[in-house]
Amino acid sequence: MIHIRVALLVFFLWIVVPGRLSAGCAEELEDVAVRVAATRVLGTVSDGVKEAIINAHCESVVSPTRLAAEVLTNLHSSNAWARSFARQMLKNKSEDYSILRAISKVEDIAAQGMKSYKESEHSWLSNPKEDWKLKAEYLRAHVVSKDFDRLFDYLPKEVQQDVKRQLGNTTSALVFRDLARTRMSADAFADLTVESFEFVAFKFPEPKRAFLGSPPGESGRWPNEERHAIQFTKDFAMGVTQVTQAQWVLVMDKPNPSHFKDGPAAIEIRLSDGTKTKVLPNHPVENVSWHDITEYLEKLNRLDQGREYRRPSEAEWEYAARGGKRTRFSFGDNEQELVGYAWFSNNSDNRSHPVAVLKPNAFGLYDMHGNVSEWTEDIYVESPSSASQQANTSSLNTSGLDQRVVRGANFLDNAELGRAAHRYHFGPRNSFNLVGFRVARTP
């Protein structure tokens, strides 16, 4: 007989989950740890229940790379139930995610029992007849891992540059791996949030008309949020998270400017002059001015030549923040749901938090409604519908002193300041522990 607590959990997953998934409310499910506990009954329940468990978990873990990392961790676990869950995930979801399909290739070889897992990796990755694009997905699953260099060396020499280019289309992690080699331990780098290096591409094969700003009746509306249409014609990619303290220090090679850099998760990163600086590696960098960010971008562009890193324009920022919606927030109009998406006055404890902890918007972007506010490229104008705001380009900077647009709420703001249309401004020389940034780039 199934234990009563497990039976109740199965009932929850079997009866409640399908309805919630169909209603788009999978985020209200029990946390991952509770769902993984349900894997103890995977071998004793119907395929429908198994499917419900797997679907619920996939709905809650939006990032394919994070999902892949969990699968890999569970495959190598000493816990038989964790391994069973991972294999069930691969069986059910490999067709949906190419990154899981790549892991399945290695797992299939290892499951034959003739080779160790490392030997299976070598066998598949070194085989010139296998699809190098799928191999790139396998490498993407390990992009912050201590195993990355070993796995990359297994690749045939003739496809290594192709794999690097493929990885570079979605992540900047390889640039930061190179910077980190002599500056932080492999263990510390492996603990960096993988999403912090990733980008979401927005492509417009035809001009895309979008509405920005807020309608007159929107609750909490400010006068400078006039609703207007704007047309996107140029492709761009947006950083999945805000730039982190680890990324800032690795690129700038200077002491961490952030106010919030102490705590149990703090580490030290070496600078080229031999000194060390303390960082909370996955927290957003803050206390940086618009001009400071210019220096960061110039250095990053020299490190990753062939791509143009920059601040997003104000229009790009709002388009990305909305997640395809015209509502107050990317998830709708109900500000009571904001605690699941943003760090703000109700849940922040008056400080910043690690990136990509809460739920992303429909585009897969994290912390757009709160954590730290974000600098954009644009000069501030009172009416964003004026000709000075363009979809993919900012206002011309004539003096270098013009007020610059800041978007997104921070950890001290109330809910209404987290609305997608909210906008304000600071001078480009100002820096605050409430304001950081994310980068845009060519896709």
Protein described:
There is one protein chain. The protein is of the alpha+beta class and 443 residues long. The protein has two domains: 4-170, no CATH class; 194-441, paralog of FGE (formylglycine-generating enzyme). Helices cover 36% and strands 11% of the residues. It has 15 helices and twelve strands. The protein has helices at residues 4-22, 32-37, 47-60, 64-75, 80-93, 98-111, 117-125, 132-140, 148-154, 157-168, 173-180, 186-190, 245-252, 290-303, 314-322; strands at 199-202, 208-212, 228-232, 236-239, 267-270, 276-279, 309-310, 373-379, 404-407, 423-426, 435-436, 440-441. Strands 1-4-12-7 form a four-stranded antiparallel beta sheet. It has a four-stranded mixed beta sheet with strand order 10-9-8-11, covered by helices on one side. A two-stranded antiparallel sheet has the order 2-3. β5 and β6 form a beta hairpin. It starts with a helix and ends with a strand. Residues 1-42 have low confidence and may be disordered.
Amount of beta strand: 5-15%
Mean pLDDT score = 86
Q: Please give the order of strands in the largest beta sheet.
A: 1-4-12-7
CATH architecture name of the largest domain: Alpha-Beta Complex
Shape: globular
Number of domains: 2
Note the total helix count.
15
**Class per helix and strand makeup:** alpha+beta
Helix content bin: 25-40%
CATH topology of the largest domain: paralog of FGE (formylglycine-generating enzyme)
Low-pLDDT segments, ≥5 res: 1-42
Question: What is the number of beta strands?
Answer: 12
Summarize the model shown:
By secondary structure, the protein is an alpha+beta fold. It has helices at 4-22, 32-37, 47-60, 64-75, 80-93, 98-111, 117-125, 132-140, 148-154, 157-168, 173-180, 186-190, 245-252, 290-303, 314-322, and strands at residues 199-202, 208-212, 228-232, 236-239, 267-270, 276-279, 309-310, 373-379, 404-407, 423-426, 435-436, 440-441.
